[in-house]
Amino acid sequence: MIIVMRMGATSKEIGDVIKRVEELGFRPHLSAGVERTIVGVIGDERPLQPDQWELLPGVERVVRILQPFKLASRDFHPDPTVIRINGVTKLADARQKDPQDTSPMAARPQVSIGGDEVVVIAGPCAVESREQILETAHAVKEAGAKILRGGAFKPRTSPYSFQGHGEYGLQLLAEAREATGLPICTEVMAPGEVPLVAAYADILQIGTRNMQNYALLHAVGESHRPVLLKRGMMSTIEELLMAAEYILSHGNYHVMLCERGISTFEKYTRNTLDINAVPALKQLSHLPVIVDPSHATGKWDLVDAASRAAIAAGADGLIVEVHPDPARAMSDGAQSLKPEKFAQMMSNLKRIAEAVDRKM
Ligand code: PEP
Ligand code: MN
């Protein structure tokens, strides 16, 4: 249930509503908009009578949210959520305050996801070496990517496959951020590893295999880092939104939903890009929607078309795999674009973005 306060409701009226919500054993969630303040009532509110709340001073109306996801729903928060990614690290913060500092980190622009701009996150599937991540970072930046991706902890189907470099991989990502100013997005696989990954990463990625790892959702919910939540390969749109709800309900409101393809009977492609999910998620939720055309197709030569479709369908961003030498990649080479192909794709995408009134 959400309680919409009247325009100009006083802070005492808002405070009284919050007090009442708490007295009844619910958790209030305050969302102060430009025009109105909305108080969300978190918990199983079935026994509550909306009409009684409408009698409280300052209350305009009360809306029951019928979907099982509440904080993630459009009814709860009609305006789109815009997430600012600021590339903060302790080192970067210290350097930013130095007026003499001319490094890329000091000059880095703010990146916002969920606003007018379509934001591209790009980089290798896995961080393999210093040369590989630095070369890729410079190349994707040059082509217009705003965020660098790269796995340090890799969820591999086989225990014998490369599992990622762990903390050393995170250090290499931080080095690439220092060199280029690009914020970094990297996967976290275990609840106990959230503090370590959050110390390096600007965006915590939850992989498809962990979408319903509730202990992990809880842990990232307690972190202040934005989260890129990938849809489970066999999960419904509603299950994705319920997973997001776990993170939001633990206090982290910076969640991006990622459609990365689902398992279907079709085996020509690695997964099937559920393009329907893009407008459906935008309709149901205020959270930004990102599409991963690389894991959705599994084939580098389908990535451009899938990306164009994603932007045309209303995606707020893309996460794309790029590798300087895909034939030698330690993971996902077949779906990785070479830097020059990525640059070509970026210029194609700009035209689609313009056609749908988005910046890129
Ligand atoms: C990845 O982004 O490299 C990855 C493992 O993605 P997913 O979890 O979607 O398979
Ligand atoms: Mn991958």
Structural commentary:
This protein is α/β, with parallel strands linked by helices and 360 residues long. 35% of the residues lie in helices and 17% in strands. The protein has 13 helices and 14 strands. The strands form three sheets. It has an eight-stranded parallel barrel with strand order 7-8-9-10-11-12-13-14, surrounded by seven helices. A four-stranded antiparallel sheet has the order 2-3-1-4. A two-stranded antiparallel ribbon has the order 5-6. α5 links the parallel β7 (119-123) and β8. α5 runs parallel beside α6 and α5 (130-143) packs parallel to α13. The longest helix is centred in the C-terminal third of the chain and has 17 residues, at 339-355. It is elongated, with a radius of gyration of 21 Å. The structure holds phosphoenolpyruvate (PEP) and manganese (II) ion. Residues 125, 151, 155, 207-208, 230, 260, 292, 295 line the site of phosphoenolpyruvate.
Query: Can you count the beta strands?
Result: 14
Order of helices and strands: EHEEHEEHHEEHEHEHEHEHEHEHHEH
Q: Total number of helical segments?
A: 13
Q: List the ions, cofactors and other small molecules found in this model.
A: phosphoenolpyruvate, manganese (II) ion
Low-pLDDT stretches are 88-97
User: Between the first and last Cα atoms, what is the distance in angstroms?
Assistant: 37 Å
Which percent range describes the beta-strand content? Answer: 15-25%
Overall 3D shape: elongated
The helicity comes to 25-40%
Over all CA atoms, what is the radius of gyration? Answer: 21 Å
Structural class: alpha/beta
